[in-house]
Specification:
The chain has 251 residues and is an alpha/beta fold. It has a single domain, classed as TIM Barrel (Alpha-Beta Barrel). Helix content is 42%, strand content 15%. The protein is built from twelve helices and eight strands. An eight-stranded parallel barrel has the order 1-2-3-4-5-6-7-8, surrounded by five helices. Strand 1, helix 1 and strand 2 form a beta-alpha-beta unit. Helix 5 packs across helix 7. The chain is globular. The protein starts with 5 loop residues before the first strand and ends with a helix. Bound molecules: phosphoenolpyruvate. Phosphoenolpyruvate (PEP) binds next to strand 8. One of its GO terms (cellular component) is cytosol. Its main location: cytoplasm. Involved in the gluconeogenesis. Catalyzes stereospecifically the conversion of dihydroxyacetone phosphate (DHAP) to D-glyceraldehyde-3-phosphate (G3P).
Length: 251
């Protein structure tokens, strides 16, 4: 680990404003000012403002959104805009989460557009990549994550690439209780780091945090964080309980 670790909570479709207020009160009481790690919350868009307001006195903690539409504005009923997310205090945007790709059919072409839009809005994109179990068993993991990474970077210049974060989230590990071993994670994070380096050079590539996600919990967080090239954690289910999440953040 060479970077300040990034520990991110993806609340998915959980925690409305009322729950979020109670969560933050309990969480903040247990977690003093954090200088040696970056903590990020990804609440639902409806809960975003509650979380940014609840963290007004803790500017070291970042808030992000789980998704934005591929266009900044227009006739897109029900969607959320990157500009509105920024206006509401979001600093980072998840792109290509496996649930977006596999439940909502988000394509590589869509992630290309979203990554460009987020870079233009000067927000940080956290691009998620990961293989399905069938792809892993067929030996295609490296090809899949390299393809997803290339699509995400397609429209970005080197400076914009240097400002992103990446998350390796094997689809078979998300919400299943099956976690990649630290060795599995290190292997694929190494693949991603080399792919970044071949695009933007070693110096920029080493500064891009690569998070691991997939059934991270209090018991396995430290071991995964200690793996080579693992610069942080993206946590779903285990980030929903304030006490448990405080434990992971302090891991
Ligand atoms: C996620 O949603 O990004 C995730 C990793 O979920 P979980 O921790 O529940 O597997």
């Amino acid at each position: 680990m060479h970077l300040k670790p990034v520990i991110a909570a993806n609340w998915k479709l959980n925690h409305g404003p009322t729950d979020a207020k109670a969560f933050l009160q309990r969480f903040l009481a247990q977690v003093p000012k954090l200088n040696d790690r970056t903590v990020i919350f990804f609440p639902s868009a409806i809960t975003l403002t509650t979380v940014t307001e609840g963290l007004r006195d803790r500017p070291e903690i970042w808030v992000g959104v789980q998704n934005v539409h591929a266009e900044a504005q227009g006739a897109f009923t029900g969607e959320n805009s990157v500009l509105m997310a920024r206006d509401a205090g979001a600093r980072v945007v998840l792109v290509g989460h496996s649930e977006r790709r596999h439940v909502f059919g988000e394509s590589d072409e869509t992630t290309t557009k979203k990554m460009a839009l987020i870079a233009q809005a000067r927000l940080t994109a956290m691009l998620c990549v990961g293989e399905t179990l069938a792809e892993r068993e067929a030996g295609h993991t490296a090809d899949v994550v390299e393809r997803q990474l290339a699509a995400g970077l397609k429209e970005l210049d080197d400076q914009q690439i240097g400002a992103i974060m990446l998350a390796y989230e094997p689809v078979w590990a998300i919400g299943t209780g099956r976690t990649a071993t630290p060795e599995d994670a290190a292997e694929i994070h190494g693949v991603l780091r080399r792919a970044l380096a071949s695009r933007v050079g070693d110096k920029v590539a080493t500064g891009i945090p690569i998070l691991y996600g997939g059934s991270v919990n209090r018991g396995n967080a430290s071991q995964l964080l200690a793996a080579s090239d693992v610069d942080g954690l993206l946590v779903g289910g285990a980030s929903l309980d304030a006490d448990g999440w405080a434990g992971i953040v302090r891991a």
